[in-house]
Amino acid sequence: MLATSTVAEEILDLKRDRRAILLAHHYQEAEIQELADYVGDSLELARKAREAEGDVIAFCGVWFMAETAKVLNPSRIVVVPDKDASCSLVEGCPVEPIREYRRRNPEHVIVSYINTSIEVKAESDILCTSRNAVQVVNSIPEEKTVLFLPDRNLGAYVQQQTGRKNMKIWQGSCIVHNTFPVRRLLDAKAAYPDAVVVSHPECPADVLRNSDFIGSTSAIIDYCGSSPAREFIVMTESGVNFSLERVAPGKKFHYVANENCNCSECPFMRLNTMEKVRDCLLHLEPRVEIPGDLMARALVPLERMLAIR
Ligand code: 13P
Ligand code: SF4
């Protein structure tokens, strides 16, 4: 049992007193996931946020996910443990060039990954996550030109899956997945020849080519749970280990470290700590506040995505 600390008890008390729901992404540290009302991938968390009751949503993930929760459930107070928990994809895709692109190419369809700022979402025609990106692009008439942003690896994967020719791809990347080296994956495959390789589509194309299954964080977890295989090489953030051990007890999971930090952890996601979760519930800060017109504009592409099942 992990959640035995005083901080964990304080969080549970505050959650009750504040009528708060705690949503956690799979990349949070295990103690936070253990206390959460719901743990999921970005699409599942968006859906949970939309239907959340109570007064407060404490969102343990990164800022763009909390912004999404606020847009989908604006009457709730949405707080985060650390306002600096951003994402390299958000940072690498400022809104000004997207506005300019839109102005120059009004007939193109802008498909934005949910890992974007609220301002970029507001300029987009439809959003997607790693779970539904292929369906979202397939929902757009073939003759339309698509601008897919901001992840180049997910974009290339979607283009390959859909066979879409008229698709432009923004060249952003995830500082975690994009630095998983294929060389280390091949070493791991040689060391664990019976292991099945499961990868997040933000990984580079050569990693994806050497994978047996490609999917969102929750899709990877579901796949490992239901697969008859006993051993896996996991090409995503190692926070998924918490749910993997729950759904697949006794199976073995190996993680390939990235080049920069020799770990598989997202430095943004890992800014959140148990103490910060407690403090955001205590002070109801940092809080997500978005101007009403921006919320209304970002809601349109979000709802279009959520309508696709
Ligand atoms: P998921 O949509 O799989 O949760 O991924 C979000 C993310 O940030 C991956 O790095
Ligand atoms: Fe962003 Fe990558 Fe971290 Fe996901 S793992 S939140 S894409 S930086």
Task: Outline the fold blueprint.
Blueprint: H1 6-17, E1 20-25, H2 30-35, E2 38-40, H3 42-51, E3 56-60, H4 63-72, E4 77-79, H5 88-91, H6 95-104, E5 109-113, H7 118-122, E6 126-128, H8 133-138, E7 146-149, H9 152-162, E8 167-169, H10 182-191, E9 196-199, H11 205-209, E10 213-214, H12 217-226, E11 231-235, H13 241-247, E12 252-255, H14 274-283, H15 292-306
Parallel strand pairs: 1-2, 1-3, 3-4, 5-6, 5-7, 7-8, 9-10, 9-11, 11-12
Helix pairs in contact: 1-14, 3-4, 4-15
The structure holds 1,3-dihydroxyacetonephosphate and iron/sulfur cluster.
What can you see in these coordinates?
This protein folds into three domains: 5-84 and 269-290, NadA-like (Rossmann fold); 89-173, NadA-like (Rossmann fold, 3-Layer(aba) Sandwich), CATH 3.40.50.10800; 177-255, 3-Layer(aba) Sandwich (Rossmann fold), CATH 3.40.50.10800. The longest helix is centred in the C-terminal third of the chain and has 15 residues, at 292-306. With 309 residues, the protein is an alpha/beta fold. The protein contains 15 helices and twelve strands. The structure holds 1,3-dihydroxyacetonephosphate (13P) and iron/sulfur cluster. 1,3-dihydroxyacetonephosphate binds next to loops. Iron/sulfur cluster (SF4) binds next to α5.
